[in-house]
Amino acid sequence: MALVCVKLTKSALDHTHLDVKEAILQYNPSQEKTTRKIIQKFLKKRVEVEDKLLVFADKQNDKLGNLLILKNECSKAGIRLKISLYCEDPENKGSQFFREVDINLSEELYGMQVW
Questions:
Q1: pLDDT tens digits, residue range 55-93?
Q2: Mean of the pLDDT values across residues 29-51?
Q3: What confidence tens digit (pLDDT) does each residue in 12-38 have?
Q4: pLDDT of residue 114 exceeding 80
Q5: In this structure, what DSSP letter does residue 21 have?
Q6: Under CATH, which architecture does the 3-109 domain have?
Q7: What share of the chain is helix, strand, coil (3-state, %, to 5)?
Q8: For residue 5, what are the contacts with CB-CB under 8 A and spacing of at least 6?
């Protein structure tokens, strides 16, 4: 079992100090079918069944639809998924931070681009 750390999209978190080079999506596809195929290919090639996948996403630049597809494909493949979202700190206006989110319940996802 291994921990695989990746960004959701290649250029979304370039403005942060995050030192993760690998990304699942090279761009934000406009069609669900394309996104699903790219994610399936990535999971098959890069992640084993018992591995844990930690995905870093950006609330301003990434899309909620892509995260939902990723969650669905990880569930099908038996891969444990954790999402760390780069978002505004509600306690300190103007500053941003990474926060682990539950895609079903997190209020940090409110206002994120859907598609």
A1: 999 888 888 889 999 999 999 999 999 999 888 777 777
A2: 92
A3: 777 777 788 899 999 888 899 999 999
A4: no
A5: -
A6: 3-Layer(aba) Sandwich (3.40)
A7: 30, 30, 45
A8: 20, 22, 54, 56
Amino acid at 61: N
The model carries a pTM of 0.82
8 Å CB contact between 22 and 6: yes
What is the gyration radius of the CA atoms in the chain, in angstroms?
A: 13
HSE toward the beta carbon, residue 95, CA cutoff 13 A: 7
DSSP string, 76-108: HHT-EEEEEEEEE-TTSTT-EEEEEE-TTT-GG
| Contacts for 89 with CB less than 8 Å, ≥ 6 apart | 95, 96, 97
Domain boundaries, the chain: 3-109
